[in-house]
Each structure stands twice: as C-alpha cells, then as structure tokens.
TrEMBL record:
This is NAD-dependent dehydratase. Residues 7-188 form the NAD(P)-binding domain. Pfam families: NAD_binding_10. Coiled coil: none annotated. It comes from the Bacteria. InterPro entries: NAD(P)-bd_dom, NAD(P)-bd_dom_sf.
Length: 211
C-alpha cells in the first residue's frame, strides 16, 4: 500500500511516519517544503520536496498512491491548499484522504471551553473551516480529523466525537491522534465521509490543564 504524507515534518506526522515505516506492507511517500528536515528517514521512505499549494507538484508526488494523509499547519490549511490537494487527487486518480483540522470549526465546543478555544484560535478557525468545507464538498472519500489541544504524553487514549456532537475533551496526546490516523490508513473503509473529533476521556473542563 503506497501512502502519501503531505506536510511530513509535522509533529503528529512524524509519529505517523514511524508507524508507517515499521509496517512492511506500506510504502510511504513523504512530501514537505524542505526535504532536508527528514534526512533521518531518507533510507526508509521516498522523500519529495515541494509546495503543498502547487497542484502539479502534489499530483506528481501522489501518483500511484492509494491514500493521502495531509497534516498541514493552520496557515497552510487555507482554501488554496485544500483546493490544490483536491485538484491534485483528481488528477492523480486518488480518492481516499485523511485531512487534519482542529476543534471549533463547527462551533461544536460548548461553554467556557468553547469561549477559550475560540479566543485562542481566533483568526485560524476561519482558515480551518474554509479548508474543511472544500474537502467535505468534494467527491473524495475523506476523513477529517479534529484533535483537541495536543500533548506530548506517551499514551494512546482517545474517544471520538462525530460532527454535530458537542466536543468537551480539552486535550489529547499527539500519539493518540497518530494512532487513530494510522488505524484509518490500515482500515480505510472506516469513518469515510466523516469529520471526527478526538479527545482524551475525562479531560472536560474550562481549558487544558496546562493553561
């Protein structure tokens, strides 16, 4: 199974890549803006340097892949980046997409935590929302992942929140998010056409514990 990772130097992406490389049935293609950031993986995966807003570069990178996992930061998750990826996937004939977004794009976080989340993310939320709308309105077989505020805890402990369900968990580990993404990569029929929130059970509150 050939899998493309777009935004391959992201913190969650780096964990996912360890899972992919350890799985001998998966052939990873790692796409990022500066390829020298992944010199430690040059013997384990195909590494391609390019711009995630460039349709031609994306198309060449994902040709022959069965699934694309896009892990772009807030500034990169503009409508331009989302549309470029949708167009590239059409051109390359790839249908399955995992797209990482954030909580709050549907105004699904209630109470004081929702107010805090909106204040902290502020200008980023419209960008995430715009990008997710483009993905959801495409004909791709997408899973949008909406993690809560992420920690570096060495644990896999998460629960899922469907679109339209109130999201109350204030945190989740990056390893948990990576484990869920890897699970979908290995089980691509699951959570198709779904926007899934991820949080750690028992962490409801007004804001994450470290703030």
């Amino acid at each position: 199974m050939k899998v493309a990772v777009i935004g391959a130097n992201g913190q969650v992406a780096r964990i996912v890549e360890r899972f992919l490389i350890a799985d001998k049935d998966i052939d990873p293609v790692l796409f990022l803006r500066k390829s020298d950031r992944l010199t430690d993986l040059q013997n384990d995966a195909q590494i391609i340097e390019g711009d995630a807003r460039n349709v031609k570069e994306l198309t060449e990178a994902i040709k022959g892949c069965e699934l694309v996992y896009a892990n772009l930061n807030g500034s990169g998750q503009s409508g331009v980046a989302a549309k470029a990826l949708v167009d590239a996937m059409h051109a390359a004939g790839v249908k399955r997409l995992i797209w990482v977004s954030t909580i709050g794009i549907y105004n699904e976080v209630p109470g004081k935590f929702g107010e805090w989340n909106n204040r902290m993310l502020n200008d980023y939320l419209p960008l995430y929302h715009e990008a997710s709308d483009i993905i959801e309105n495409s004909d791709l077989e997408y899973t949008i992942v909406r993690p809560s505020w992420m920690t570096d805890k060495n644990e896999v402990d998460y629960e899922k929140f469907a679109k339209g369900q109130e999201f109350t968990d204030t945190e989740v580990s990056r390893k948990s998010v990576a484990a869920y993404i890897f699970h979908i990569i290995r089980n691509p029929q699951e959570d198709k056409f779904q926007s899934i929130g991820l949080g750690k059970p028992g962490t409801a509150g007004d804001k994450p514990s470290w703030y």
